[in-house]
Amino acid sequence: MVAAALVADATDRHEQAHFFQSKLDRGGEALDGFVADVTTIAQSQCEHCEGYADIETLVCRLPIDRLTFASHDDHAPYSGPYPMALLVRAFIIEKINGWDETALHDHLRANPSLCRDLGFESLPNQSTFWRAWNERFSEDLRDAVQKCADSIVTAARANEVSFPERVNTSETAETKTNKPSKHQLVAQKTDEVWQQAKPFVTDAFALDRGPNWQIHENAFFEQHAYMGMREDMYARSGPASFSLDTTRERIPTGSTHRYQIGKLSVTEIREMLRDTTRMLIARARQNGELDGPVFAAIDVTKGFPFTGEVEDHEDDILGYKDGNEYYQWAVLKIVGMDVPLVLDAIPRVRGQSKDEIVEKLLSEATEMVDVDLVMMDREFDSDPVKDTCEEYDVHYLNPTRIFANSDEADTIAWMYRNGERFHVTEEKADDGTPTRKQVYLPKQSNSDDEDEGDDLSAVWTEMCGEWEFDDVEGEPSEGMSFSRLLADIQREEEVEERKQKAQEGEVDTGETVVFETNHPYVTASNADEQQMDGRAFIHMIERLIRWYRRRWGIENGFKKQKHFMVRTTSTERDYRFFNFVFACVLYNVWRLVDLLVKLAIDGENRSYSPRVDANQFLTVAKQCYGLDPPD
Questions:
Q1: Burial of 418 by CB count in 10 Å (0-12 exposed, 13-18 middle, 19+ buried)?
Q2: Rounded distance, CA 413 to CA 420, Å?
Q3: Which residue, 509, 520, 516, is CA-closest to 425?
């Protein structure tokens, strides 16, 4: 372990550094001193470290308790129960290991003594760590923490400190010199793709201006990208910051910026989005991506709350369940195991039918990629929507609404009376269109969430786990736990109870979920038109469930896209729609960058999870976009 005398020696060294005696409220220069002094500590103390535990002790003893980091804390002056100095120490350990916030939380929970040594009286949960890193820490402070972690790892490697396998220490100094680190590779690939993507944007996006313009139109889109990559930056105040970074002599003012972009129509904006997406798809196909059929999802998202006068916007401003009013956008996006690109988007208008939304989105998207299956929530449950999907030769999958006295309710009553837990009905068409199927599944969840109907992943996980425990004969296998056996007994009792209620005319349709699809994989019988055996049927349902779970990729994408969206107080729909679409473009470029980085680092062994998170991408992309010399 690091001896007490050595810790005291490190402290003595750095009491001579004035930054350790300050509150670190001055910004970049102080952070440079912070990184330099932590590097000095690492270089001196790693000489005495014998193992990874000593590295963690070194981080715990960094003399930074008096530092507030106030100028880099978005929550200052209120810091809550976790001061910044404690979080900085914790995140240095996270970055040393290349973890995310979940892995950091799990490590501290498994090592309570380390948690105490870092200074925590109680362990923050994973979401607290995530919010601290992504919302409290400034970008400069995040960069400084990463540099501190890198300097500690470098010093430890130089002194041949033994690391656990979770830390990559296999590179020698020579290979490290010749082979770029992960962070360097991310930066290089990001810069490379930005150089390719910028022409996509500047070639596809154009303004409707007169011939006597004096500011190059690329400056407008560079400025918009710059503002979209900064948190809470508005078009009115953003140009002042952009002027300090750009090499352009002339840039538009905030009012000019909003006016010129606001003249673009919805049709023009959609075409610009699709043009850039086509180019990104072509780039992805160079690496064998998006060549075959893809899964997609359609959903509706809302913009920032509308706070102006609704007059003259009654057809576009729609209410929401939270009581606020919003412009809303319908989106079609690739989901699943492919590059998750936004293909198209349209504003939602009052009185607009769901099949009209689906038709507008599919009409263009099906020309860009081969859409095999499109997934929607129950809001899109209607026969015209199904007809539209079939018109474009696209399969659909969505949960359906169940009304009293409907065919679905009658089928559920029949299932209860006969003790059936799963059921598939088929509706064959005479015109050659795909057979439409309804899949009835039990809703097994103890959740009190009112939105449970749309979030069934917990149900499916439980059901899939149950199926895996059954052997060929359907008897419980030796691997089945006692709690699972009790749960199965309880379900059997519930089935009997539902049968009894159904005999008395009492049917609760809320206990059953019904999915509709026309995909040929789903069927009630095998190739010989015989009833499918239980195991094959279960496997079919399990795959259907896994397909639909991928729809949540569109929801997660909406959350990420807000990282790229320019804030505005404008009441104009088309300007707000442009802000959303341009955020989709930046989101698409991020996902392409992530693909290329994963290919460079992991090759064919890449996983679906992002290698480059949104914050990493933003940090690097800010340095590579909008700062080029004038055209």
A1: exposed
A2: 10
A3: 516
pLDDT band at 626 (very low <50, low <70, confident <90, very high): very low
Can you read off the two tokens belonging to residue 306? 């509308």
| 3-state SS, one letter per residue, for 166-228 | CCCCCCCHHHHHHCCCHHHHHHHHHHHHHHHHHHHHHHHCCCCCCCCCCCCHHHHHHHHHHHH
Q: What string of DSSP letters covers 344-402? A: EEEE--TT--HHHHHHHHHHHHHHHS-EEEEE--GGG-SHHHHHHHHHTT-EEEEE---
* Torsion sign (Cα): 342, 347, 350, 353: negative
* CA atoms of 141 and 88, how far apart (whole Å): 9
Structure tokens at 5: 């005398």
CB 306 within 8 A of CB 571: yes
Q: What integer is the mean pLDDT of 583-595?
A: 87
Residue 489 has pLDDT above 50, yes or no: no
Q: Which residue's structure tokens are 């003893």?
A: 61
Does the reported pTM lie above 0.70? no
Tokens of 186: 């991310």
Distance CA 134, CA 36 (A): 24
Rounded to the nearest angstrom, the gap between the alpha carbon of residue 486 and the centroid of all alpha carbons in its chain is 37
What residue has token string 């068409």?
429
Q: Which two tokens stand for residue 422?
A: 């799963």
- Structure token pair of residue 621: 């992309």
Residues 332/345, Cβ–Cβ less than 8 Å = yes
Provide the token pair at 291: 């060549």
- In 3D space, the residue among 294, 298, 314, 296 whose CA is nearest the CA of residue 306 turns out to be 314
Residues 441 and 512 sit within 8 Å (Cβ to Cβ): yes
